[in-house]
Design brief:
This protein has 313 residues and is an alpha/beta fold. It contains nine helices and eleven strands. Among the domains are: 156 residues, Rossmann fold; 52 residues. Helix content is 35%, strand content 21%. The N terminus is likely disordered. Bound molecules: zinc ion (ZN).
């Protein structure tokens, strides 16, 4: 890789501390740069770690990462709002909510419309400005977020964030320190123990190396949570915005060498070519199957992503 001198190879698990000797290794390729990365699986707790870890991840994020074209974005926003209303169900009354890595702030905007007081964090000032300007949300730039003792939150959300962090246990411990008594942390991450991951292996859409630095199973998430003084209360798998599409892209990758080209097209990160008609035919062919597989995997607790609620252990 071009920045090999800056890359760090992992030697032991950042969650339980076990060495990787004898652990499984999944070979994958970044679909943006074509660079090879491996996922080494901890033989003790089962957490997967991307290796090597680039010192600078910016070259691996396309300019349009997660910026889908308007009709895709509209569908996603609908589904996100449905998801947020599910988070609220377990609370007797709205309280104070924090989303770590809140993107454009659509989740927090929905929570606020249901009576919650909200604030969010993002990695850079530019990213924080997007949520501030679009929805008028109180934003912090990491790591200068809310400090323990300054603010406490009944609901803390890490939605599709934890897998991007080099030290997920530290991130969970920080969230725990900001949790109000009786509060709850919602964590949404891809599920490496899913049927989709087993079918896709290194071609699995949600493996997404090197942007995803850690790869959870229900058991390894529980172990990481325990390391941060938290315990898992519930785990769910229903994810209409991630799972059927993940099946379509993973099947196209595995059976037709698509290398996430469909995703790049939907993000506007590449131009359409005449040969993409094959990709579109593939979508029509496997789309209905993908919906059936997704629904069956949810019913069997083997969905491609999982959403866990964590409480103080
Ligand atoms: Zn481990």
């Amino acid at each position: 890789m071009s920045n090999a001198a800056d890359a760090r190879c992992r030697e032991s698990c950042g969650s339980c501390g076990a060495g990787f000797a004898g652990g499984r290794r999944i070979v994958s390729r970044d679909y943006v740069t074509g660079t090879r990365f491996d996922v080494v699986v901890c033989p003790s707790c089962g957490l997967g770690w991307t290796t090597p870890v680039p010192a600078d991840l910016d070259p691996y994020y396309p300019r349009t990462y997660r910026r889908y074209n308007p009709w895709v974005a509209r569908v996603l926003n609908r589904l996100y709002r449905w998801r947020v209303s599910r988070w609220c169900r377990g609370f007797a009354a709205p309280g104070s909510a924090l989303e770590l890595g809140c993107g454009d702030g659509v989740m927090l905007d929905t929570l606020r419309s249901q009576g919650w007081q909200v604030c969010g964090t993002e990695r850079t000032e530019a990213m924080a400005a997007t949520a501030r300007e679009r929805y008028g949300i109180r934003m912090y730039v990491d790591p200068d977020g809310p400090q323990p003792g300054e603010d406490r939150f009944e609901l803390i959300v890490l939605f599709q964030v934890l897998e991007h962090l080099a030290d997920p246990v530290a991130a969970l411990a920080r969230a725990r320190s900001l949790l109000a008594d009786g509060g709850r942390i919602v964590v949404g991450v891809p599920n490496r123990a899913s049927w989709q991951a087993a079918f896709g292996s290194g071609d699995w859409f949600h493996l997404d190396v090197p942007r995803h630095l850690v790869h959870f199973t229900p058991a390894s998430l529980a172990a990481a949570a325990a390391g941060a003084g938290l315990r898992v209360e519930t785990v769910g798998h229903i994810s209409p915005e991630h799972d059927p599409f993940g099946w379509v892209q993973t099947i196209l990758n595995r059976c037709a060498g698509n290398s996430n080209r469909l995703t790049l097209l939907l993000m506007g990160a590449t131009r359409w070519r005449i040969s993409d008609i094959v990709t579109l035919l593939g979508v029509m062919l496997v789309g209905p199957l993908a919906v059936v597989l997704a629904a069956a995997s949810w019913a069997c607790g083997r969905g491609a992503v999982m959403e866990a609620t964590l409480v103080r252990g």
